Amino acid sequence: MKAKQDATLVYKIMIMLFILIAVTVGSIMFGAVQISITDSLKILGSHIPGVNQFINTDAIKESHIIIIMNLRLPRIILALFVGMGLSAAGCVYQGVFSNPMADPYLIGISSGAALGATIAMLFPIFNKFLAFGSVSTMAFIGSISVMLLVFFIAKNKGSLPKTTLILAGIAINYFISSFIALLMMFNKEKLENVYFWTLGSFKDANWLKIGFLGVIVLVALVIIYKYYMELNMIMVSEEQAFTLGVSTEKVKKILLVVSSLMVAVIVSTCGIIGFVGLITPHATRLVVGPNHKVLLPMSTIFGGIFTVAADTIARSILPNAEISVGIITALFGVPFFLILLYKNKNLR
Amino acid sequence: MSISIKQLEHLYGNRKVLKNIIHEFEKGQFYGIIGPNGSGKTTLLKLIANLLKPSNETIWISGQDVTTLREKVRAREMAMVPQIFNIDLAFSVEEIVAMGRYPYKKGLGDLTENDQAVIYQALDKTNLLNNRLRDVNTLSGGELQRVILARAIAQQTSILLLDEPLSHLDIHHQIDMLNLTKKLSKEEDKTILCVMHDLNLTMKYCDQVLLLSDGEIYASGKTKEVLTEENIRSVYGINAEIVEINGHNIIIY
């Protein structure tokens, strides 16, 4: 029976992966310029070693090749990694805090990033750092500082009590929001920049960012998945997990630090994309159940699908402008989630 | 000795909630830990389970200082059934019981065939085989408590700690739980430490009793010798009469 269970899991993951690839490839043809699916596929294929010799791209406009390879593809792949990372981090936070309301921004990482980004936009004294620019660098410094501050406040003789972590995080969230608002009051001309940064966007994607963020997300995912059993047990009850032999404090620390670092990198790369990290783990749990052995991979893939789809809508729904992806994730995600909640209520 | 406690004390802030606890728990015995509210019963159990940190060299489990044991090693020595609680997650009964095999896991390994067999035995002993695929958030309190006991059985420990396992259970499920636990002490030679409230059930099921009062051991030993009219009067402050009916001692308040 166990072998059968494992087979269904592999089967489910295969289906989800297939949907992921379909959505990713499909999203390439959408955008301000409509490019046909055959052309899109040809352009993609011509960049895959081994396949490229069979593909003739002479008939395709040079500009289309540039749009796909330099604009759309990096953006889609970035969205993919970001969605996967946020969703996995959401699973971890909801598990560790045994709280369905927890999301990756709970302990203040996002507001720390927003503060860093705001300072960088208001006082452009910082030089470019790699390909990330001063905004990303400052956002990263901000988010890591806040994360360390929250851990430091909550730490009690080597343990990290959940309630103190949450309360410290929420308090700091409020404090920083007010501080940003204050900064804004004196710099009204930058208000729009800051506001749109916080809504999040993938439009500055490039291959260097993808390489950096992708490696971090993948490493974090592997580390997190190693602890799926401990996450199950801690989610049921931290105290019982301890009597069952889990080194709860150590596991909590590893999971929180790894996922927080990943979220810090994500947020400082593309702003505060809300909702994905809260809702995709939830929605997935409603369908596949709470066991992280299944939940983590399924929710991670679903987070990728959801974010790529949201970004595709964000950049193609208006003819001459694009909408911030953070708006789309909530605008389209909430109704979807509410329907799921409603249906699930009827099932029980 | 299964558990020995030497000069244990515990402070909450400045208040001493346990003092001068010295006791030896023998293998295969069913111990009832009783005493009025606030006498330190649960604190004692949590110290043994290491949920509260005892001082070094005060609590010894199978000859080892409990504070030096690694988490998984400790979980192979003793299991704990907590006070009743809710699981609001759709884990199946079998998934929860399988968590009892965690102390035996190495790395990412899946359940072995041996694990699977132990889980089935635990489900069988607690009469849960037919319900093993049910979600635990659909179970009643009594059924859930049996699932948690099955999880503790799957841990295959020599010591079982139960913290007021009977609270909020109806009398049928209380007796059911006690029968199961008693069986484990007799048939599998487990040492059972159970925090109890009902003195008559204590009289009926426990081999030995530890009577706590104000953080100290007031009396300990064979159940009949500890549960006397004098002891009940001076610790609980009530006048009780003990009568023998059909060979059973019954306490009448």
Protein model, in words:
The complex is a heterodimer of chains A (348) and B (253). Chain A is built from 14 helices and no strands. Chain A is mostly helical. Chain A has one domain (2-347): ABC transporter involved in vitamin B12 uptake, BtuC. The longest helix of chain A has 35 residues, at 62-96. The model of chain A has no long low-confidence stretch (mean pLDDT 88). Chain B is an alpha/beta fold and 253 residues long. Chain B has one domain (3-252): Rossmann fold (3-Layer(aba) Sandwich). Chain B has helices at 41-48, 71-77, 93-98, 113-125, 141-154, 171-187, 199-205, 223-226, 229-236; strands at residues 3-12, 15-25, 30-34, 59-61, 64-65, 78-81, 159-162, 191-195, 208-213, 216-222, 241-245, 248-252. In chain B, the strands form three sheets. A six-stranded mixed beta sheet of chain B has the order 6-7-8-3-9-10, with helices on both faces. In chain B, helix 4 runs antiparallel to helix 5 (141-154). Chain B is globular and about 55 Å long. The two termini of chain B are 36 Å apart. Chains A and B meet through helix 9 and helix 10 of A and helix 2 and strand 6 of B.
